[in-house]
Amino acid sequence: MSKPICKIADIIFVRFELIDLAPQKEYMEHFGMFLAYETADTIFYRGTGTAPYCYVATKGNTNRHIGTAYRANAFSDLEALAAAKGVEIVENTDPGGGHKVTIMDPDNIEIEVYYGMEVAERITIDPKRLNTGVDKPRENALQRFGRGSDEWQLHNDRWVYELTSKVKRLGHTAINVADAAASVDWYAKTLGFLVSDNLIGPDGAASIGAFMRCNQGDMPVDHHTLNNVQIMGEPRPAFGHAGYEVTDSVDDLMAGHYHMKTVDKYYHEWGIGRHLLGSQMYDYWRDPTGFTHEHWTDGDLLDATIAATDTPARDLIMAQYGPEVPSSFGASMPSEDVDSFRAATPSLSDLVKMMEQQ
Ligand SMILES: [Fe+2]
């Protein structure tokens, strides 16, 4: 393959337009993010990691995913992108500073590439040590999460578990694309992404998408920073989900699950389970406008020496363990429409069943 225009370092944030920011602010706090900045019309939420923010939403006339932002390794990468795409390098006037270029991907997703953004101070948490059947590093120390049983508090007449997850960073997005080959090719040639898994469709031949990662040479990176999957037909909302790594592993994810479940305001999309492709434990929740956000932990790390694997669609759909994947997974829609969509559409695991029974 020809040399890419640049090799981006990592993902930074997702950008949305929302009609009403107030319910989203409440969701973000339940989901386990921290308000980093707020202007008259824009909210910026961060995790405990070093990105100044990992979620941005601006007040507007529609509810839509605008795009995704990535971090370049060098200013010369912005110069190369600007020259190749015929766009300007502009100063970032939002919090965090630095410079950026903005381009569009083949599915009209806005791609911002930043260099020189500020590095935020980490929010430190106490990492937990886990005793297992074979390794017991914790002795004479009690395992306590948050305030122990005091995390359970009565809200009116109902028990709510108050400890949220602590999001660390945005790790990836999943997008629904019109043409898998065109999307995979664009991300490889423009941002230097490598294919971790090439998804082979039901015909056993054509690619229906990929899990793609950053190319940082011998430095291991997340198994995927992007998952592009070809979806036939319209409407085809391009945004599938945004996946955020939690700070402290399994209990951090589980605590957040029980928090989201007991506040009882949001649609639980899928989980808890363990993915096959990328291996993360996952838990997916829809936000007030129906966009899906994932808590994940314990993902695979690969360096650039690992070759792409051809992977059957079955491995995309069937997790290592967990509940069966619903038909609505990956589709953005208002939460109130999800039940009727699921009732009218065969589940993805039923499609795999049909394929295997043929
Ligand atoms: Fe994900």
Which series of helices and strands comes N to C? EHEEEEHEEEEEEHEEEEEHEEEEEHHH
- Can you summarize the main beta sheet? 9 strands, mixed
Are there runs of 5+ residues with pLDDT below 50, and where?
none
CATH architecture: Roll
Measured distance between first and last alpha carbons: 37 Å
Task: Report Rg.
Answer: 20 Å
Quickly give the structural class: alpha+beta
Strand order of the largest sheet: 17-18-19-16-11-15-13-12-21
Notes on the protein architecture:
The chain has helices at 21-31, 75-85, 180-191, 249-263, 313-317, 338-344, 348-357; strands at residues 10-18, 34-38, 42-46, 55-59, 64-71, 90-91, 99-104, 110-115, 152-155, 158-161, 167-177, 194-200, 207-213, 221-222, 226-230, 239-246, 268-274, 281-286, 292-297, 301-302, 309-312. By secondary structure, it is of the alpha+beta class. The protein has a single domain (10-121, 165-357), classed as 2,3-Dihydroxybiphenyl 1,2-Dioxygenase, domain 1 (Roll), CATH 3.10.180. The chain has a nine-stranded mixed beta sheet with strand order 17-18-19-16-11-15-13-12-21. The protein has an eight-stranded mixed beta sheet with strand order 2-3-4-1-5-8-7-6, covered by helices on one side. The protein has a two-stranded antiparallel sheet with strand order 9-10. It starts with 9 loop residues before the first strand and ends with a helix. Bound molecules: fe (ii) ion. The site of fe (ii) ion (FE2) has 5 residues, from β11 and β16.
Summarize the structure.
With 358 residues, the protein is of the alpha+beta class. It has helices at 21-31, 75-85, 180-191, 249-263, 313-317, 338-344, 348-357; strands spanning 10-18, 34-38, 42-46, 55-59, 64-71, 90-91, 99-104, 110-115, 152-155, 158-161, 167-177, 194-200, 207-213, 221-222, 226-230, 239-246, 268-274, 281-286, 292-297, 301-302, 309-312. The chain has one domain (10-121, 165-357): 2,3-Dihydroxybiphenyl 1,2-Dioxygenase, domain 1, CATH 3.10.180.10.
